[in-house]
Inverse folding.
């Protein structure tokens, strides 16, 4: 973030959502460290405000998420136990334990760990939403690094050509795994949007209310048939790429942490903040206690095909 | 009865037309499939009759086409994608293998993707490598996909409709060099009159050895059987039709009678469908076999330049030679 970040004014419910995601992700990293979760995971620490700001704007829409998707899910659905059970392989997971952290499905939600893959799929859903004419849109979250993938451009071309109600929310955290954006992205994301004639907006603030007032009208234009939109959030990844694999220097990490929303928001009203924070921490602990005591998710007894 | 004589290409066209008439959720997508009717004219006239919204000319974008079709299938459509040539399916491979194939599993059976990906495949038309390949094993290897290939006009007409009606994703391989072969099709019949999509079939009965083939190699095998009959050898030819799932029952029955099996396909032999069929027959019919299962396949090289394809492609002589080797065991 280029400019000094101002203190944040956040509504109580939004603050609760932000803090819950923070505690969920922190707990997850601890579970990994303790060997209680296998596989891999990518936390959205530092980026929580993006899905929290967008959630009410996307209520009836179709959302496509990526590998860094826990916040996308938690802000959209009141189902933290479903997500944690999915990740921990316990009964009651969103996909019965077969999807894990990165492959979630609900009727209006789909995530994938394969970068860029969801953009054409979102274009297909957007094509249907356009034809059904109810003003819904398809929104896909992608990282800056994902702009290296060819499928993104096939999807963008189709979306621009057919003026589809498709929105890409780009979470540009300045890094892709270990490679800084300026080492993997030629030009800019704005330039790429311009090349397709796609509307573009850059967002530097992490103020939930400001984001809503800036992005809301842009989404309304998409719903009205204005064609696709790319919104680029310049954000910060506080945690490692997955677990224990941060390649940035301690100074870089300290700078990111000092710009984080958590401390700035707390500074405004520590008493209220701490009260909400404590409640969300306890809520996460309760979710964990519940899920950790569940039976393992059973094997799926289904077959690879619907019909023999 | 309304039996007509149709080419395989025309029979696919009439089959697509039937499917579109039956269900307005059937949408065709692909490169140049509208006004042009596709490079092989399989969709000829369909955009004129069903409109641009149901027969969609797409950009050059195989990942985009298949990805968009996934999105449409998620929303209740039955998209049918045309891949212009076999060698152009690879850009869509990620979407097919990582999304199309896995959706049912990932959603624990809540979502299946009723979509068809049509691929003209195989050589024999004097074209370059990426217009002549046989990539079927990549897909048959992948759990969650169904893979079929037609070899006659009748099958072309009905199998494409059955594939579209299927709730599972189907990769539909069309024997491009046989598009112009003619045969009878009773287009008045409904789908219930057709053989099940995932069934193999004896297309020529015989007693001395069994030949298993699919797609373009069925004709080659039938020609070989005709030639062998002149030498007093009776070959039974089985058209697999479905490459995944395999319907091995008729193959086992046949091998138990003949004791000899030759599998024929254009794709390279290395770790291909012939190997799978050979393994299964060995497991099930070991004591009936008079000779090892033999394979007649393309060579383990990239598809060659067109002037070499006659050397590369299995032909009547190579099939008969394999039959001789089987008898000489
Ligand atoms: C097609 C593909 N290639 C490689 C990977 C491995 N991978 C996972 S995340 C990632 C970096 C993604 O960077 P970016 O899009 O900037 O998102 P971020 O992780 O920063 O949120 C990589 C290389 C992948 N998931 N998919």
């Amino acid at each position: 973030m280029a400019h000094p970040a101002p203190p944040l004014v956040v509504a109580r419910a939004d603050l609760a959502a932000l803090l819950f995601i923070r505690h969920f992700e922190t707990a997850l990293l601890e579970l990994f460290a303790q060997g209680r979760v296998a596989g891999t995971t990518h936390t959205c620490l530092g980026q929580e405000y993006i899905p929290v700001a967008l959630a009410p704007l996307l209520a009836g829409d179709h959302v496509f998420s990526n590998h860094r998707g826990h916040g996308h899910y938690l802000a959209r659905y009141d189902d933290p136990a479903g997500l944690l059970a999915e990740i921990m392989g316990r009964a009651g997971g969103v996909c019965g334990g077969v999807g894990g952290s990165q492959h979630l499905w609900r009727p209006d939600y789909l995530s994938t760990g394969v970068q860029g893959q969801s953009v054409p799929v979102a274009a297909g859903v957007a094509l249907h939403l356009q034809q059904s004419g109810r003003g819904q849109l398809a929104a896909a979250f992608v990282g800056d690094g994902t702009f290296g993938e060819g499928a993104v451009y096939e999807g963008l071309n189709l979306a621009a050509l057919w003026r589809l109600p498709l929105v890409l929310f780009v979470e540009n955290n300045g890094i892709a795994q270990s490679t800084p954006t300026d080492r993997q992205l030629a030009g800019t994301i704005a330039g790429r949007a311009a090349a397709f004639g796609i509307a573009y907006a850059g967002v530097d603030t992490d103020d939930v209310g400001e984001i809503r007032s800036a992005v809301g009208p842009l989404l309304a234009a998409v719903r009205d048939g204005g064609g696709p939109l790319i919104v680029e959030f310049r954000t910060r990844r506080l945690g490692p790429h997955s677990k224990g694999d941060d390649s940035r220097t301690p100074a870089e990490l300290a700078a990111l942490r000092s710009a984080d929303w958590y401390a700035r928001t707390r500074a405004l009203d520590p008493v209220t903040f701490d009260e909400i924070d404590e409640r969300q921490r306890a809520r996460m602990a309760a979710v964990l206690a519940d899920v950790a005591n569940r039976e393992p998710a059973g094997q799926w007894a289904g077959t690879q095909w619907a019909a023999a | 009865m309304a039996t007509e004589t149709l080419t395989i290409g025309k029979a696919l066209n009439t089959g697509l037309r039937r499917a579109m008439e039956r269900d307005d959720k059937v949408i065709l997508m692909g490169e140049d499939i509208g006004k042009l009717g596709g490079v092989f004219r399989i969709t000829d006239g369909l955009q004129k009759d069903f409109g641009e919204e149901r027969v969609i000319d797409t950009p050059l974008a195989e990942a985009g086409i298949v990805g968009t079709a996934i999105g449409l299938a998620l929303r209740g459509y039955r998209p049918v994608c045309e891949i212009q040539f076999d060698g152009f399916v690879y850009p869509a491979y990620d979407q097919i293998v990582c999304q199309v194939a896995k959706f049912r599993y990932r959603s624990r059976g809540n979502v299946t993707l009723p979509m068809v990906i049509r691929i003209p495949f195989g050589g024999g038309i004097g074209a370059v490598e990426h217009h002549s390949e046989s990539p079927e094993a990549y897909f048959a290897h992948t759990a969650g996909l169904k893979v079929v290939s037609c070899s006659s006009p009748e099958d072309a007409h009905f199998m494409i409709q059955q594939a579209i009606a299927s709730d599972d994703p189907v990769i539909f391989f069309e024997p491009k060099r046989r598009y112009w072969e003619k045969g009878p099709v009773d287009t008045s019949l409904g789908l219930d009159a057709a053989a099940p999509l995932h069934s193999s079939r004896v297309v020529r009965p015989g007693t001395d050895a069994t030949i298993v083939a699919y797609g373009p190699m069925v004709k080659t095998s039938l020609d070989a059987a005709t030639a062998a009959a002149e030498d007093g050898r009776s070959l039974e030819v089985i058209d697999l039709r479905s490459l995944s799932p395999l319907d091995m029952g008729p193959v086992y029955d046949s091998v138990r009678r003949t004791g000899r099996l030759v599998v024929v396909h254009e794709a390279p032999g290395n770790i291909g469908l012939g190997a799978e069929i050979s393994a299964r027959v060995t497991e099930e019919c070991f004591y009936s076999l008079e000779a090892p299962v033999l394979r007649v396949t393309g060579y383990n090289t990239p598809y060659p330049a067109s002037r070499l394809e006659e050397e590369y492609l299995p032909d009547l002589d190579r099939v008969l030679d394999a039959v001789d080797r089987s008898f000489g065991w």
Observations:
- Chain A touches chain B at residues 95-96, 98-99, 103, 105, 110, 112, 114, 117-129, 131, 138, 150-151, 154-155, 157-158, 161, 300, 302, 304-308 (CB under 8 Å).
- Strands of chain A lie at 62-65, 105-106, 109-111, 138-143, 166-172, 175-176, 179-180, 199-203, 229-234.
- The longest helix of chain A spans residues 270-292.
